[in-house]
């Protein structure tokens, strides 16, 4: 009888898992995925268990290998924790070093160099193991994403202090973080965690590849540290021409780092044979859990995906009206865009009843102490976060009343996060982390109606008794079981095929405006069509408040300002003894 084996490798950036089935001498991949980070030292046991519970439950064996799990005591604690999630499975636990070594070398001799959020070098000759690096981000991890990014951030301030120069790299980092100055960068760094800092590594590599010599020097220095560690491990093991296998996100994603490492290693260990790992660490974890004596062949079987169905979505079809888009003049292009906006209006109009129902649902939830959560990925996620962020200043609502959740977290607000929308488990975890309960309402936003992150969030919300709304731009999609309200804005194919930031994005933005504004109006935060609960945080808003109070109280600006001063610039309080003073508008 074949066994189902779950291999897991967790670190500071992600948790990767693979479910394989053992068939004779091979391990056939059945399913795989990625979840949030699971460093054993940095993540609580409760959080680890929540992550584990998003993985397949029907495994006969589990290989759990996490960064930070370095001692026998650590392995015992991790094994016990896994036993709570997989009570009937045979479990083997260890460090990500172990799974990386297995993926890179199987049972053979050589050196595995792993560079991700952290970095480590592990070598083997026979039964002897030698290690270097991997001491954690406070004292070590030289050559990893955190180390590399931190050096780059320090370079920005050092260059300014020494030369008062405005390095091009400074502007690139500020843009990537949506910051406006070095002072804001310093404040960001003071509160950023390990993963936030390490997440800047792709920006560092981009600048290096674009010819920034100063940044390339930082990359070379990091690669140089790893090459020195590699040479030291080879010397201790007596390996003169070792096989050196590279794995981890920095090597897999950025060829510039591979080339830098090869150059440096050539000086320290000229006869080394360097290559990329053929297998991922999670496959190494599965192999270790299979308890095989030699490396099993790994055959990738096609994973069930939504790709074929997604291709049939209306938002993915070619628009017959824009087939010659690249041939149009600027004026013709504008005219075509303007004409196409009629589809947005029509799509919104057809869903009037559903949008009204959404307002009623959200109003009832917030009135009863609940919260509204927008959940999305990419453009949809950004629109949700944007709408949520504008509710507190517009209506003086508590920031927790309307919250935006985006796949990939804050990084995804300004740049793409690879694969962030593809994991149902990550969406479910996001809902769990926010403590969503039966008083809350969750609105999933996905143009295609199929983003796994969003569907996972809606399923978890339903499990927790919360109401749910699905907002899409694809009426042809499959229905979502258990969803309380589904709104489909039929905007049709985009002018630029598949670019749902266009009509779909516009329609989504309008729909979210309608839902949130409608709910706030129903909750009494508006008088007539005036914002009587706006948060006054700048000169423009002070002037608006004065004009608003003057109009309703029928007084001049001086008296309006006095009223506001008397009530601490609270517009509602300043108008508590005044009737509407406004035309009905009807």
Quick structural overview:
With 586 residues, the chain is an alpha/beta fold. Helices cover 46% and strands 17% of the residues.
- Give start-end ranges of low-pLDDT stretches: 300-306
The major sheet is characterized as: 6 strands, mixed
Strand coverage percent: 15-25%
**At CATH's second level, what is the architecture of the largest domain?**
3-Layer(aba) Sandwich
Helix content: 40-55%
Looking at the structure, the CATH topology of the largest domain is Rossmann fold
Give a description of the structure.
The chain is an alpha/beta fold and 586 residues long. It folds into 4 domains: 4-106 and 279-300, Nucleotidyltransferase, domain 5 (2-Layer Sandwich), CATH 3.30.420.40; 133-276, ATPase, nucleotide binding domain (Nucleotidyltransferase, domain 5, 2-Layer Sandwich); 316-522, Glucose-6-phosphate isomerase like protein, domain 1 (Rossmann fold), CATH 3.40.50.10490; 531-574, no CATH class. The chain has 22 helices and 18 strands. It has a 6-stranded mixed β-sheet. A 5-stranded mixed β-sheet has the order 8-7-6-9-10, sandwiched between helices. Helix 16 packs parallel to helix 19. The protein is globular and about 90 Å long. It starts with a strand and ends in a 12-residue tail after the last helix.
Topology:
Layout: E1 4-10, E2 15-23, E3 26-35, H1 45-52, E4 61-66, H2 72-85, E5 90-95, H3 96-105, E6 110-115, E7 119-125, E8 128-133, H4 145-163, H5 168-177, H6 182-191, H7 194-198, H8 201-209, H9 213-237, E9 243-247, H10 249-253, H11 255-268, E10 273-276, H12 281-290, E11 297-300, H13 307-311, H14 330-350, H15 352-367, E12 372-376, H16 378-395, E13 402-406, H17 424-433, E14 441-445, H18 452-463, E15 467-472, E16 485-488, H19 503-522, E17 526-527, E18 530-531, H20 539-553, H21 557-566, H22 571-574
Parallel strand pairs: 1-4, 3-11, 4-5, 6-9, 9-10, 12-13, 12-14, 14-15, 15-16
Antiparallel strand pairs: 1-2, 2-3, 6-7, 7-8, 17-18
Helix pairs in contact: 1-2, 3-12, 4-9, 8-9, 9-11, 14-19, 15-19, 16-19, 17-18, 20-21
């Amino acid at each position: 009888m074949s066994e189902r084996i779950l291999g897991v490798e967790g670190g500071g950036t992600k948790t990767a898992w693979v479910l394989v089935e053992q068939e004779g001498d091979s391990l056939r991949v059945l399913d795989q995925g990625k979840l949030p980070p699971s460093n054993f030292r940095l993540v609580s046991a409760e959080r680890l268990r929540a992550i584990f519970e998003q993985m397949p439950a029907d495994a006969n064996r589990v290989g759990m290998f996490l960064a930070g799990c370095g001692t026998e005591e650590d392995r015992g604690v991790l094994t016990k924790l896994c036993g709570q999630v997989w009570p009937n499975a045979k479990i083997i636990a260890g460090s990500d070093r172990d799974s990386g070594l297995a993926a890179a070398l199987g049972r053979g001799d050589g050196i595995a160099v792993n560079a991700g959020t952290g970095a480590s070098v592990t070598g083997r000759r026979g039964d002897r193991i030698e290690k270097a690096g991997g001491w954690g981000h406070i004292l070590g991890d030289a050559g990893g994403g955190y180390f590399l990014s931190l050096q780059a951030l320090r370079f920005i301030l050092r260059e300014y202090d020494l030369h008062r120069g405005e390095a091009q790299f400074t502007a690139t980092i500020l843009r990537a973080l949506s910051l406006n100055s070095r002072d804001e960068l310093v404040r960001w760094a003071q509160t950023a965690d390990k993963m936030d800092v390490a997440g800047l590594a792709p920006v560092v590599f981009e600048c290096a590849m674009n010819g920034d010599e100063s940044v390339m020097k930082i990359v070379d220095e990091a690669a140089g540290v790893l090459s020195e560690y590699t040479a030291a491990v080879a010397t201790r093991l007596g390996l003169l021409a070792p096989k050196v296998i590279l794995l981890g996100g920095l090597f897999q994603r950025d060829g510039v780092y591979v080339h830098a490492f090869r150059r440096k290693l050539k000086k320290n260990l000229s006869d080394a044979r360097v290559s990329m790992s053929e297998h991922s660490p999670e496959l190494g974890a599965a192999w270790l859990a299979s308890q095989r004596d030699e490396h099993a062949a790994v055959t990738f079987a096609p994973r069930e995906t939504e790709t074929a169905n997604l291709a049939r979505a209306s938002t993915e079809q070619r628009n017959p009206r824009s087939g010659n888009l690249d041939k149009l003049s600027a004026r013709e292009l504008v005219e075509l865009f303007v004409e196409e906006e009629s589809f947005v209006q029509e799509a919104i109009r057809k869903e009037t009843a559903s949008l009204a129902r959404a307002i009623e649902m959200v109003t009832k939830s917030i009135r009863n102490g609940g919260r509204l959560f927008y959940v999305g990925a990419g453009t949809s996620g950004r629109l949700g976060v944007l709408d949520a962020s504008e509710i507190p200043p517009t209506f003086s609502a508590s920031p927790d009343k309307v919250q935006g959740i985006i796949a990939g977290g804050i990084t995804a607000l300004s740049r793409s996060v690879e694969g962030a929308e593809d994991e149902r488990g990550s969406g479910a975890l996001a809902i769990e982390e926010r403590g969503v309960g039966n008083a809350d309402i969750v609105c999933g936003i996905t143009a295609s109606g199929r983003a796994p992150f969003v569907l996972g969030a809606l399923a978890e919300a339903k499990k927790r008794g919360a109401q749910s709304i699905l907002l899409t731009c694809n009426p042809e999609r499959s229905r979502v079981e258990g969803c309380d309200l589904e709104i489909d804005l039929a905007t049709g194919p985009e002018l630029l095929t598949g670019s749902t930031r266009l009509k779909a994005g516009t329609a989504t933005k309008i729909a979210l405006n309608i839902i949130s504004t409608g709910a706030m109006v129903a909750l009494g935060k508006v008088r007539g069509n005036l914002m009587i609960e706006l948060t006054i945080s700048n000169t423009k808003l002070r002037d608006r408040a004065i004009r608003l109070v003057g109009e309703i109280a029928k007084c001049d600006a001086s008296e309006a300002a006095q009223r506001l001063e008397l009530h601490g610039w609270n517009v509602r309080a300043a108008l508590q003894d005044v009737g509407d003073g406004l035309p009905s508008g009807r």
